[in-house]
């Protein structure tokens, strides 16, 4: 493996990590608000709060890792994406800022308010929608570069079926991943009322998510044929993804092994996300930037990878401790601590 | 639009806004974990539940400020790429390593902070819970360390070569550990501690001024002011070394800070004053020899004046006021905290007298103003460069036409966040005053 491939793999792993943990968080916000509106919040509120409280800060860091890391490994991305994404990027920052601070304000400070929980629910759906812009424009055709000045074509972005397809896929995936996780968490908490409701949510969102996955797969064929052919070559990874999806839905349907079901959901998204990413290579931005011409120098690459390995060795035991105390400690999960 | 649609100017203003707002939360975010650790440690060592409660209550307020710090930190992290794409392209090649490591340090801190907050009564010994705070303190300080090396690099870029416009021969460690690094890092970290001690001291002083006689607030004031005295003296020493660093590596910045025009030995230090159109200094307080001593330990040190630099590379001269403001307040904080510590230690007078309490309370906001002034001085003092000697700020900015609109949006965002932050904190502690919490936890409260 070349340094370029190691670099992008590391970054893609972080983005995958963000996809999972942030989806759980975003979806939880939506379910929390939705259940409040339908007067069912007493059922699932406890489960959501118990899980989210100690981990909300950790979620954001995965994203920061990705966008700081990508500038470290591929400095030219700052030039292209930085200039083009001023507005969507700023909108995402503002939404993230509102979400993060108002969560803390509501949880630690003031009492529950409808307004806070509305903000928390709404931003949970808007943030993934705004973040997907990056993946959409990476397919090419949404950016022009003239005389060294990068422009984002808003008409093209808002008028394209593909870009809206990705937005919908992101939102339904967030809801599915989140419901699948919270179902598992509720089953660990032995909170059977919450379990029933969340299981229903998980089943409800499972089919929209897989159907949108297939729709976007084919929409991409019209958008970027080269990338599409690459994805077709990796058909077996998408097959793994699909089988994992079927397994997860089956287990949740049959009310058994919710933990395994969630792992299968993670496998489903892992396979699809990496197949998408691998076939995207070598391009970071069609057709302007590949991982080879935008790469940092070799010394920096080696030191970044070394820092990554060192940091990872530090983080794994810490994350393990966090999970052991809050995710796998039966007494805590059940609310006895 | 109020301004001409100049992306460079607007990007600068938006960056000031984000950094200025983030700096408040970043500063206390680095300093308060140490103060919590000191309080919890005292609680264990002296077996005094008042200190343990102090750590609890500080931690509860702290976590709300962390939230704002996290989201504004995310904002500046992304805005660097959005507003300064050309700078980040160059920085990615040279100084990407500490930026990357900063995120690791913060990640580490975030994990343990989450654990710390939710495990007060989950461990068998109090010591074990205290130990969770060590990674929080280390992670917070390490974040400040790594990100400040990036700022140091912007002042003294090294560890790379530019051959025909291409950056080559990069040495990331040499870039990180440049001549600006030692003074800059120690200065930033120590003022985080100093500012945090004063903010917490201010709260205690205000409570006592309001007539609250609980021993809790006296202990809090004592702990914060003795810590502040130590930090303030250290700040003064490090500040002195920073002057010597500037003399050696950024003489134009020192000259601009001091309105020092003629190159000379036995240079005086100028405090305050105004500058006439012919660059004459009026109404200023002059301390003879002091600038030479600040620059190189002895009155014989020759300090290069502004007239000997190319005008094209000089920073705006108003930085003098920010420099002075920072130094004045720094001295004030040292004076107040040392005075409190000495009076209290001698035992002859009452350290909790009204004038001193008012001075301590004023120290809270003043310490924040000093911190902001220091940042404005060092950032504006580096102009016209974003990377000193290599890249001008004007070459680094985005070319997008929409920065003005983003500036308005972010100004609204920070206003709303700032106001809600204060509102939520007040409400949080009003609803649960310390007397009630002591009663609830069965801690004896007595008045002194």
From TrEMBL, chain A:
Stated membrane topology is: Multi-pass membrane protein
**One CC-aspect GO term:** plasma membrane
Q: Which UniProt keywords apply?
A: Cell membrane, Membrane, Transmembrane, Transmembrane helix
Q: Which residues cross the membrane?
A: 12-34, 55-74, 80-98, 118-137, 157-182, 202-222, 234-253, 260-279, 299-322
Top-level taxon: Bacteria
Where in the cell does this protein reside?
Answer: Cell membrane
Keyword flag Signal = no
Q: Which family does it belong to?
A: Belongs to the cytochrome ubiquinol oxidase subunit 2 family.
Name of protein: Cytochrome D ubiquinol oxidase subunit II
Q: Which organism is it from?
A: Alkalicoccus saliphilus
């Amino acid at each position: 493996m070349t340094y370029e491939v190691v670099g992008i793999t590391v970054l893609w792993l972080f983005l995958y990590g963000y996809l999972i943990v942030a989806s759980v968080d975003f979806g939880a916000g939506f379910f929390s608000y939705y259940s409040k509106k339908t007067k069912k919040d007493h059922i699932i509120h406890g489960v959501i709060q118990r899980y989210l409280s100690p981990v909300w800060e950790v979620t954001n860091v995965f994203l920061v890792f990705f966008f700081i890391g990508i500038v470290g490994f591929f400095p030219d991305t700052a030039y292209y994406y930085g200039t083009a994404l001023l507005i969507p990027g700023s909108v995402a920052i503002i939404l993230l800022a509102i979400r993060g601070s108002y969560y803390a304000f509501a949880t630690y400070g003031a009492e529950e308010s409808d307004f806070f929980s509305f903000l928390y629910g709404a931003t949970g759906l808007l943030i993934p929608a705004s973040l997907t812009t990056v993946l959409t424009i990476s397919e090419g055709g949404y950016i022009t570069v003239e005389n060294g000045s990068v422009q984002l074509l808003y008409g093209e972005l808002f008028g394209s079926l593909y870009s809206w397809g990705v937005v919908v896929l992101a939102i339904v995936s967030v809801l599915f991943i989140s419901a699948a996780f919270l179902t598992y968490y509720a089953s660990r908490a032995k909170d059977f009322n919450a379990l029933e409701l969340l299981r229903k949510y998980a089943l409800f969102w499972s089919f929209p998510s897989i159907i949108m996955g297939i729709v976007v797969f084919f929409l991409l064929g019209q958008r970027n044929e080269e990338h599409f052919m690459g994805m077709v070559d990796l058909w077996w990874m998408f097959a793994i993804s699909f089988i994992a999806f079927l397994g997860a839905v089956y287990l949740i349907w049959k009310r058994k092994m919710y933990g395994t079901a969630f792992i299968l959901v993670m496998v489903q998204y892992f396979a699809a996300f990496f197949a998408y990413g691998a076939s995207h290579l070598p391009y970071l931005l069609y057709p302007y930037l590949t991982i080879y011409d935008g790469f940092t120098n070799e010394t920096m690459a080696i030191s970044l990878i070394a820092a990554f390995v060192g940091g990872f060795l530090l983080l794994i035991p810490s994350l393990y401790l966090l999970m052991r105390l809050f995710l796998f400690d039966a007494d805590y999960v059940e609310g006895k601590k | 639009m109020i301004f001409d649609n100049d992306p460079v100017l607007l990007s600068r203003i938006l960056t000031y806004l984000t950094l200025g707002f983030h700096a408040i939360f970043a500063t206390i975010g680095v300093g308060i974990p140490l103060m919590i650790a000191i309080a919890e440690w005292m609680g264990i060592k002296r077996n005094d539940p008042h200190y343990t409660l102090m750590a609890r209550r500080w931690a509860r307020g702290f976590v709300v400020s962390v939230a704002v710090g996290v989201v504004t930190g995310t904002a500046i992290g992304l805005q660097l790429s959005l507003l300064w794409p050309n700078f980040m392209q160059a920085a990615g090649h040279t100084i990407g390593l500490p930026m990357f490591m900063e995120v690791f340090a913060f990640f580490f801190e975030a994990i343990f902070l989450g654990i710390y907050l939710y495990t007060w009564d989950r461990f068998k010994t109090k010591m074990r819970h205290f130990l969770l705070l060590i990674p929080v303190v280390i992670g917070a300080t390490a974040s400040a360390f790594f990100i400040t090396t990036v700022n140091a690099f912007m002042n003294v870029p090294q560890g790379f070569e530019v051959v025909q416009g291409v950056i080559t021969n990069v040495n990331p460690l040499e870039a990180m550990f440049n001549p600006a690094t030692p003074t800059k890092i120690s200065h930033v970290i120590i003022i985080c501690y100093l500012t945090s001690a004063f903010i917490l001291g201010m709260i205690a002083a205000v409570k006592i001024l309001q007539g609250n006689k609980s021993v809790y607030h006296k202990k809090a004031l004592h702990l914060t002011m003795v810590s502040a005295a130590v930090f303030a003296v250290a700040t003064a020493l490090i500040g002195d070394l920073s002057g010597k660093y500037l003399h050696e590596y950024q003489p134009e910045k020192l000259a601009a800070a001091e309105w020092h025009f003629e190159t000379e030995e036995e240079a005086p230090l100028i405090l305050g004053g105004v500058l006439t159109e012919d660059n004459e200094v009026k109404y200023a307080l002059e301390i003879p020899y002091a600038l030479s001593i600040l620059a190189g330990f002895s009155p014989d040190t020759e300090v290069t004046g502004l007239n000997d630099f190319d005008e094209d590379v000089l920073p705006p001269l108003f930085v003098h006021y920010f420099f002075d403001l920072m130094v004045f307040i720094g001295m004030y904080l040292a004076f107040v905290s040392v005075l409190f510590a000495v009076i209290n230690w001698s035992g002859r007078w009452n350290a909790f007298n009204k004038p001193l309490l008012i001075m301590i309370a004023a120290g809270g906001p003043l310490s924040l103003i000093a911190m902001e002034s220091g940042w404005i001085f060092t950032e504006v003092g580096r102009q016209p460069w974003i990377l000193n000697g290599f890249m001008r700020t004007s070459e680094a900015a985005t070319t997008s036409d929409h920065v003005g609109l983003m500036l308005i949006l972010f100004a609204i965002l920070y206003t709303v966040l700032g106001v809600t932050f204060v509102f939520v904190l007040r409400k949080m502690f009003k609803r649960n005053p310390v007397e009630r919490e002591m009663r609830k936890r069965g801690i004896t409260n007595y008045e002194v």
